[in-house]
Amino acid sequence: MSELPLPPVTRTLGHSGIAVSPIAWGMWRLAENGRTAGDAARLVHAAIDAGISFLDTADIYGFDGSGGFGDAEALLGEVLAAEPALRARMVLATKGGILPPLPYDQSADYLRKAINASLTRLKVDHVDLWQIHRPDILAHPQEVARVLDDAITSGKVRCLGVSNFTAAQIAALNHFLGHKLVSTQPEISPLRITCFENGELDQAMMLGLTPMAWSPLGGGLLTAPESARDKAVAAALDAVASAQGVSRTVAAYSWLMAHPAGIIPIIGSQNPERIAEGAAALTVRWTRQDWYAVLVAARGERLP
Length: 304
Ligand code: NAP
Known about the structure:
Elements: E1 11-12, E2 19-20, E3 24-26, H1 37-49, E4 54-56, H2 71-82, E5 91-96, H3 108-122, E6 127-132, H4 141-153, E7 157-163, H5 167-176, E8 183-185, H6 200-207, E9 210-213, H7 228-244, H8 248-257, E10 264-267, H9 272-277, H10 288-299
Parallel strand pairs: 3-4, 3-10, 4-5, 5-6, 6-7, 7-8, 8-9, 9-10
Antiparallel strand pairs: 1-2
Bound molecules: NADP nicotinamide-adenine-dinucleotide phosphate (NAP).
């Protein structure tokens, strides 16, 4: 049976020319459990030392419903201040545009302030990728595009992406941007398969956007499946995992990476061994039959 190609050891972020690791590490949960800058540094090293040098954060990470806005960025800023040489070893992505309790603000004034505030917290002069976290329905894409283009021209941001945008919202923003989008970040996992059939990944391939998959383990649900559907998906992943001597989580990352759009899973673990283990996803081979078996388990019905 023919096998799907292995993922490349590096990918290019959209049309930017920026080389990134084919797996990313996310810092949504970094500022939890009283983590210190020393703890955060150990996690950053675990990722980079395993070849996972594409790092994803957001200004809202750390927010607990009442406070903590900016805490994950600030923690990474402390790590970078203590060890400045780390900056050149990572491709740094952050996001903004969620502003509790509004919930979203992408007015020109706010976006300018949000980008500057992220740079201050991260203690860097630029980020490599700046993403709109969730769409603000009240912001005209032409106004948003103007601010984002300015952020590129001023050197604060090297390239632009979006997250949780519909295909139409991506097309509208890209229409007005001079510096076109390079990435999109939807939720994708073996338990969250809508983008395989709703046109989002097709659009990503058409526009040359790199898809970054958030919650690639369904927020951890795949490690402790609950429903009959979760368990069927886990079993389909386990079949490949046990045949190739990897864990179910590694099989899940590699299942996403086998898609032709070049999906980059964002590992969400804040455990150094689990982060490093993710790199094994580069070695897992999928056949069409095994890949579709996971999809069919997630659909809960056969394909036509
Ligand atoms: P995930 O990989 O689906 O889930 C990670 C969770 O699973 C962690 O709590 C982790 O706990 C747990 N887990 C349990 N067993 C594990 C194992 N064997 N291996 C790995 N993890 C295990 O990802 P996520 O944290 O939900 O999201 C990943 C990243 O996506 C975030 O950090 C963020 O960058 C991005 N994200 C973006 C958005 C958006 O709107 N754009 C939304 C959510 C997330 P331990 O830490 O104890 O390992």
